[in-house]
Sequence to fold (278 residues):
Amino acid sequence: MFRNNYDNDSVTFSPQGRIFQVEYALEALKQGSVVVGLVSKTHAVLVALKRNAEELSSYQKKIIGIDTHLGIAIAGLASDGRVLLNFMKQQALASKMTYGRAIPLERIVAQVGERAQTNTQHYGKRPYGVGLLVAGVDDAGPHLFEFIPSGLTQEMAACAIGGRSQMARTYLERHLEEFADSSREELIKHGLRALKESMAQDKELTVDNTSVGVIGTVLEGKRKGKVEAFRLYDGAEIGPLLEASLEGTGEVETQPQTETTGTTEEGAIAGETMDVDT
Fold:
């Protein structure tokens, strides 16, 4: 199983300057089902493909709200994602209790990156086998951040991580110039279409296997300019969004599927059979 003597722990560099345990964690990330994030001038959207371990089990949660101004999407080892999720919730609550305000996006993302990077400096620990897309809003507007197991965090205009995510990234790159001026509904359409690009030809997005999370700023009314609280669309709420995403694509919408497809997805790993606690 071992590549060589330099992959037994995460604190030893190989002669080529590589840390193999981190690379293995990145491979675990690629085994997870795909999640997509994109951002405009007014909103940030997270879209995720859910899996279930077997036909008798429920679909795992892939998008979770951390605070009213912040939400994440998970790809990879769900149990590791739960640990980081709880850490982020603790930090968000501590900021409100200590300072009386929501935690800044860049700060909480940096804290997660530091926590993950610390695991590569202490013997006996391992990197987290999970990647995150973090969407939120601050005084400067909506933002999207990517986190990977090495501890690297970076702000993105659009991003896709997980298994078969390259095709979703190709779609995002092709339509990148459209995102900045997109409305809330248009941004959701782009996210769902990018997610669909990553699926096998015999698979479809359904109300069972799709989740959408949206956050942004209020554009009209008395609360204009205020934060539009993070909202998760799941289950039956997804139906109208899926229908809207098919407009102009030439596809015909069918009745929502109820069959579970998680056991046939490529790259399923044991870790992704565990639901993320909320």
In short: The helical segments are 20-31, 78-99, 105-118, 165-174, 176-179, 184-197, 238-245. The radius of gyration is 19 Å. Residues 40 and 82 are 28 Å apart (CA to CA).
